[in-house]
Amino acid sequence: MEQHTIGVDLGKTVFHLVGLNRLGEIVVRKKLSRPQLLRFTANLHVQLIGMEACGGAHFLGRALREQGHEVRLIPAQYVKTNKSDYIDAEAVGRPTMRRFVPIKTDHQLDLQSLHRVRERWVMRRTAVINQTRSLLLERGITLRRGRCHLETALPEIIEDATAKLSGALRILLTQMKLELDQLVTRIEEADAGIKQVAQENEACQRLITIPGVGPVTATALIAAIGNGAAFRKGREFAAWIGVVPREYSTGGKQKLLGISKRGNPYLRRLFVQGARSVMMHRTKQSSGLSQWLEKLSLHKHHNIALIALANKLARMAWAVLTSGQVYQPPVLTDIGSAKLVCR
Q: Domain segments of the chain: what residues?
């Protein structure tokens, strides 16, 4: 029985496999464990094996490639909505399937893991700070916004005998301070690891020269898209991280809405934060970028201009990453023009 394409729906212990012939007809359906799946595919000669890009997909994709198969990972949003395990496996045979997810290397997965753990620590640190402030507010003690103000004032509040705080609350605040100190130490260690990776990676060094892009954004970008070859142009990458307008067009009329917020939310947040930093110091940027931002800010809301800048920074980062060239600040063709030219 000829099998041209294999689709696999992944699970923790059970995998559903669908085999298609050259006409796209289902010729095989199997339910296998992980060892059974790898034994089954080791003796197969097929044109393509596809699976949804989800947890464990990159490991299995590399294992199948080592067996000599061509493997493609399908973005989760392209899988049919009437969901079942076998329908998910059939998605690889759809003729309209054009976009696939590159299989990540061990280095990319290590970087991605570091960023995800660091993000959780940062969120936990924010939660501890907010909870501590709220507990103090219930006792009539208010603190200025900002982590540095809490870290400075909290030891004094705990030791202040004149403050009307119960012994139980002082013990609780001491424990929360200890938790906060531990989180700060872990985040600093993660930041040090990220900076070391950025210093040793040539692509990261080129990305850091872009305004608003630091070691965290550069390494997160490498972990997410590698060399960026999965995207044909910077516009596709900007759409993937969700900094382009959503579109609702009908009756021949185009209607653009807010940003789509699709794709990678972590990268989108980093580029927006970088854009906010560039916007705050726009007078210190290159002449082309500075004047472009000034003209944009005159007739656009601040938040709209911010997202437009994040879009531009994302496209610049993709261009630097894929071209292998060093970032060149944009310049204006003349003083009265708003058209940017990249050298």
A: 5-93, 106-200, 202-342
